[in-house]
């Protein structure tokens, strides 16, 4: 019997050059072990012939090519079982014959050996930035993995969505810098060594930028100054089922899967979930001038959105757009995510440019997109977090209206933009700020607050420190004459562009960073922070470091020591959020709390009165409820974005308790954050002075 329960007679019926084979099973797609051999199955609706190409691992030329007889075709699926293969030394691909008629959407080219879309591993990029031998005819080959990892008793943490504090990071950049102090810099193993740091910081979810196999040499260039630009971020997928071998210290030994699984297992042991940033909106095959590596040569018309004259729709901004609501492509996406959940114990996925997943084959938005609905109700993905970047470069912006089926959360772009405007002192932001700190009921009033992923910075754009150090982007290092990257950054350099020795400017910048964290951690919704922001990482004003595999992108861990006071404050605010469940309620919409206080109330410098006029730069809010053990609890947050200090008269503390100061960003460390039990009593009961451009957080005791 095979692994899928189908009876398999083990005898071959054909042979070529001593290699024996027979007709295979159409399902499952990809490769699967059967008694005595390997089953290969690949889909193509329009191919007229299929040849399986077998390589010895690392060999320049194929070992054997097996044309599949027409009898090995079931519907539009070609399948073959090959016997007596050395799995550990096996690499393979396909040649597909068919029409080359671009105007009709067909781009078959039998000179190309194509990657299997379901390949569990890919050869050719086993070590990061290993130069490819010039003239290599078949640089990328599919290979198999043994799914024999011992997970022991690993159980995903399955944390409530609203309890997450998400930490976005790049696997390589997190530990590649010499200051990281790990044994295997820039790898899954290196990240594993930093788990104690993550645990101490208080984050309970790591979101990894793309780890599916991609080609870091894609679009690489040597610039006139000698620097090299590469595909560093990895938002250009080559193989959706294969972990990036170049991110594994053991990738050259074919152990990348085990190394990644060991990382996930270790994170789970510390109660930390793992979310993968996945890119199903396009592939690395680009536009009409791009390479033929897999999908284009297998069945271009099925896998990509094409115009009537056979050109590529480019809703992704990267040359092509996957046809995700085609039934075949939709099934591949579902199979892929199921595989990562079942075999890698992944806890969730963040979908890059997810609005594209809502388009039909002609690019029109769908009212009920089959893919999104399928993912929402799939039983294997039933406990998996699904997070959408709910826009695309084609102009489809769906924040607040993304088809969610009660399952999807969204990156909240308006949260980012409103907080940036408020923190940098723009007028007219108090009214929208009330929406953002409440969980954006203007966007999600009919959903839980955990539909909103709140962020101020992400991998794309300025770091949090640079947000207050640069008013303009500085992307010359990318080699595109500063044309790339976002122009509207909603940033403020605090009076000087870039680094300065002015102590007042430097103090103001770090205070604004503290303000950002104080507001983020006291807002309803799910906070997302970016690795290194907690200790003042800078990219020197580069807001589009997608191609920078160097110290522009790598985390400089010496900053954790230099800015230890900032790191201490951020750690404190994350733990304060953890200790006060009222900061992460599933719903506070309508603010209908118990008498005499609502769950959430807004205030100004006077209690129970908020000036919503355009010129106001003051906002306060109070949350009332209980701690995890049922003890009455309240938190009051006062934000003053004026350039002078202001007096705030406080609302009475609920439950006949008293207010104490937990955080005050206008004070030096360690007074800026007080550990639980050491909060500062008020100097004058019933009122506080909130310093210029600063935030105070009070808790009830």
TrEMBL record:
It comes from Phaeovibrio sulfidiphilus. One of its GO terms (molecular function) is amylo-alpha-1,6-glucosidase activity. Belongs to the glycosyl hydrolase 13 family. Residues 168-577 form the Glycosyl hydrolase family 13 catalytic domain. The lineage of its organism: Bacteria, Pseudomonadati, Pseudomonadota, Alphaproteobacteria, Rhodospirillales. InterPro entries: GH, GH13_cat_dom, GlgX_Isoamylase_N_E_set, Glyco_hydro_13_N, Glyco_hydro_b, Glycogen_debranch_GlgX, Ig-like_fold, Ig_E-set. It comes from the Bacteria. Keywords: Glycosidase, Hydrolase, Transit peptide. This is Glycogen debranching protein GlgX. SMART domains: Aamy. NCBIfam families: glgX_debranch (TIGR02100). Residues 667-686 are annotated as: Disordered. GO terms for biological process: glycogen catabolic process.
């Amino acid at each position: 019997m095979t692994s899928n329960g189908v009876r398999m007679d083990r005898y071959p019926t054909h042979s070529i050059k001593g290699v024996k084979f027979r007709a295979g099973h159409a399902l499952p797609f990809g490769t699967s072990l059967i008694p005595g051999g390997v089953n290969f199955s690949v889909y193509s609706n329009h191919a007229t012939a299929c040849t399986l190409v077998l390589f010895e691992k690392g060999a320049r030329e194929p070992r054997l090519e097996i044309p599949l007889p027409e009898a090995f075709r079931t519907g539009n699926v070609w399948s073959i079982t090959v016997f007596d293969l050395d799995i550990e030394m096996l690499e393979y691909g396909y040649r597909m014959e068919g029409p080359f008629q671009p105007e009709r959407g067909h781009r078959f080219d039998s000179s190309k050996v194509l990657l299997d879309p379901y390949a569990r591993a890919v050869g050719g990029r086993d070590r990061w930035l290993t130069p490819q031998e010039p003239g290599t005819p078949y640089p990328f080959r599919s290979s198999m993995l043994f799914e024999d990892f011992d997970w022991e008793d690993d159980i995903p943490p399955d944390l409530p969505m609203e309890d997450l504090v998400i930490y976005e990071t790049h696997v390589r950049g997190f530990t590649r810098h010499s200051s990281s102090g790990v044994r295997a810099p820039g790898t899954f193993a290196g990240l594993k060594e930093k788990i104690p740091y993550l645990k101490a910081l208080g984050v309970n979810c790591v979101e990894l930028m793309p780890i599916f196999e991609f080609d870091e040499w894609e679009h690489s260039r040597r610039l006139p100054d000698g620097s090299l630009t590469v595909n560093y971020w990895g938002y250009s997928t080559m193989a959706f089922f294969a972990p990036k071998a170049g991110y594994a210290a053991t990738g050259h030994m074919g152990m990348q899967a085990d190394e990644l699984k060991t990382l996930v297992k270790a994170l789970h042991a510390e109660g930390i979930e793992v979310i993968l940033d996945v890119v199903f909106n396009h592939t690395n095959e680009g536009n009409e001038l791009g390479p033929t590596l897999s999908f284009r040569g297998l069945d271009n018309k099925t896998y990509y959105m094409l115009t009537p004259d056979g050109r590529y729709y480019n809703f992704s901004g990267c040359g092509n757009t996957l046809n995700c609501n085609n039934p075949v492509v939709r099934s591949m996406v579902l199979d892929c995510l199921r595989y990562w959940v079942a075999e890698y114990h992944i806890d969730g996925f963040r979908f890059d440019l997810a609005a594209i997943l809502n388009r039909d084959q002609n690019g029109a938005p769908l009212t009920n997109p089959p893919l999104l609905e399928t993912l929402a109700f799939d039983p294997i993905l039933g406990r998996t977090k699904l997070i959408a970047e709910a826009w695309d470069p084609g102009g489809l912006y769906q924040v607040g209206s993304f088809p969610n089926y009660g399952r999807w959360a969204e990156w909240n772009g308006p949260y980012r933009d409103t907080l940036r405007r408020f923190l940098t002192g723009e007028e007219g932001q108090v009214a929208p700020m009330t929406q953002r700190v409440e969980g954006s009921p203007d966007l999600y009033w009919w959903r839980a607050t955990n539909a909103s992923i709140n962020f101020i910075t992400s991998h794309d754009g300025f770091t949090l420190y640079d947000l207050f150090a640069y008013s303009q982007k500085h992307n010359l290092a990318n080699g595109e004459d500063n044309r790339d990257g976002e122009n509207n950054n909603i940033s403020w350099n605090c009076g000087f562009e870039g680094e300065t020795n002015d102590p007042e400017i430097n103090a103001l910048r770090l205070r604004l960073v503290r303000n950002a964290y104080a507001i983020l951690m006291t807002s309803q919704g799910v906070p997302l922070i970016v690795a290194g922001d907690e200790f003042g990482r800078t990219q020197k004003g580069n807001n589009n470091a997608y191609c920078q595999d160097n110290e522009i992108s790598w985390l400089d861990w010496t900053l954790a020591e230099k800015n230890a006071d900032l790191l201490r404050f951020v750690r404190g605010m994350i733990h304060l959020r953890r200790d006060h469940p009222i900061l992460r309620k599933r719903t506070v919409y309508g603010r209908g709390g118990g008498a005499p206080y609502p769950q959430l109330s807004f205030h100004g410098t006077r209690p129970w009165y908020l000036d919503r006029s355009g010129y106001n730069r003051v906002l306060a809010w109070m949350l009332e409820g209980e701690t995890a053990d049922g003890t009455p609890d309240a938190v009051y947050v006062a934000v003053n974005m004026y350039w002078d200090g202001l007096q705030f008269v406080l609302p009475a503390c609920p439950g006949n308790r008293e207010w104490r100061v937990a955080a005050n960003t206008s004070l030096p460390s360690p007074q800026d954050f007080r550990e639980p039990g050491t909060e500062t009593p008020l100097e004058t009961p019933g009122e506080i002075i909130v310093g210029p451009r600063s935030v105070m957080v009070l808790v009830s005791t």
